[in-house]
Design the sequence.
């Protein structure tokens, strides 16, 4: 009888030890990052490096954070979010637009865990106390990159007065999808170019994928074949930059410098620096401090950045960028100043509405035109939610394909 009792006690103790070990394992992970791709994607690598830097800055060891890569925009995201929550993560971040609905599903089930999501649109309407969206005013970074591109066009093709002929003022843009995020980016980029070369126009070719090196390379080559003198992109592989390097066409990349691979053609890259946000998120996980429900990073807080200029940048670009950056930071310059663009030959109406509270029909629902104290009317991008909602097709941009 004593032997049986002893055996039962051992079993109970083993079960108890297993429970303790599980608890210890769960307590190790404090924060997690879910990525659509991996380090080979310039987009995802930007998140990964910022996440690691934030964890290090906050004193987390490698055992206290987890990075999960190559997670599709499907139930796989939900499964990974649940897995991280079960392992003890107090804050979990997903980096791709299509992850959002799956993060919301997990947030409803794990109410003590903070679920954070980049580029999403639903936090301000879902009103879940533990679900958050985050983005940055990257359209300002795109505008600055456009200024650098305009300086390059002027250097390459300007006459004695600095004028660039219409034939040499055509630029190209490789876009992933026709989403507002992409439209806002390429429009702000062109407006930056036009601040230097007023007659600049743009051709845009979409790939239908965030990451497809072949399609991005083909799109860049098609734009070059159509006479585009400079290429930029909102797509995540090295397809477009590498094609530009081969063709010796200047390139403005995104999410990080491509100068090492494209030394002759790289001008500059704009990017979102996610480290400030990740540090705030980690504070939430460790200290229980509040996370902003719909966070917008800015130039002022270091969330919107440009890389160092490449060797292909025009002389005088650095000084010009500092001038424009200061005007953006103090609010005296508005990227989407209504006096700087038209749609069908007309300015946007003062009561123009954008699709901010996204529904299935993408119905315009929010008046987004504001006026500064100096009397400048502008489209107030990222002021009503963090994710971009500028989806207007302005004059001077030719969309070569729109099925995406």
Sequence:
């Amino acid at each position: 009888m004593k032997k049986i009792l002893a055996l039962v006690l051992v079993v109970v103790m083993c079960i108890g030890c297993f429970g303790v070990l599980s608890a210890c394992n769960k307590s190790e992970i404090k924060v997690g990052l879910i990525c659509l791709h991996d380090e080979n994607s310039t987009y995802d690598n930007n998140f990964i490096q910022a996440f690691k830097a934030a964890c290090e800055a906050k004193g987390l060891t490698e055992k206290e954070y987890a990075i999960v890569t190559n997670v599709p925009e499907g139930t796989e995201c939900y499964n990974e979010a649940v897995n991280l929550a079960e392992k003890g993560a107090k804050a979990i971040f997903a980096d791709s637009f299509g992850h959002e609905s799956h993060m919301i599903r997990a947030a409803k089930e794990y109410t003590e865990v903070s679920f954070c999501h980049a580029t999403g649109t639903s936090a301000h309407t879902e009103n879940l106390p533990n679900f958050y969206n985050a983005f940055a005013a990257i359209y300002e970074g795109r505008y600055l990159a456009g200024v650098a591109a305009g300086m390059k066009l002027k250097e390459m093709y300007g006459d004695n007065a600095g004028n660039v002929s219409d034939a040499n003022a055509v630029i190209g843009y490789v876009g992933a999808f026709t989403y507002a995020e992409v439209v806002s980016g390429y429009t702000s980029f062109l407006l930056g170019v036009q601040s230097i070369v007023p007659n600049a126009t743009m051709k845009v070719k979409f790939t239908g994928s965030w990451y497809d090196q072949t399609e991005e390379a083909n799109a860049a080559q098609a734009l070059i074949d159509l006479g585009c003198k400079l290429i930029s992109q909102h797509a995540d592989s090295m397809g477009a930059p590498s094609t530009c390097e081969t063709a010796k066409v200047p390139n403005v990349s995104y999410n990080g410098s491509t100068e090492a691979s494209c030394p002759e053609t790289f001008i500059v890259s704009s990017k979102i620096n996610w480290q400030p946000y990740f540090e705030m998120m980690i504070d939430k996980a460790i200290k229980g401090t509040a996370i902003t429900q719909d966070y917008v990073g800015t130039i002022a807080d270091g969330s919107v950045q440009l890389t160092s200029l490449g060797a292909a940048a025009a002389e005088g670009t650095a000084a010009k960028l500092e001038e424009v950056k200061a005007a953006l930071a103090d609010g005296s310059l508005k990227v989407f100043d209504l006096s700087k663009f038209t749609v069908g030959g007309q300015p946007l109406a003062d009561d123009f509405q954008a699709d901010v509270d996204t529904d299935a029909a993408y119905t315009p629902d929010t008046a987004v035109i504001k006026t500064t104290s100096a009397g400048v009317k502008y489209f107030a991008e990222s002021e009503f939610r963090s994710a971009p909602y500028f989806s207007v097709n302005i004059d001077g941009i030719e969309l070569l394909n729109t099925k995406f």
Summary: The longest helix spans residues 2-28. The first strand starts at residue 31 and ends at 34. The two ends are 74 Å apart (CA to CA).
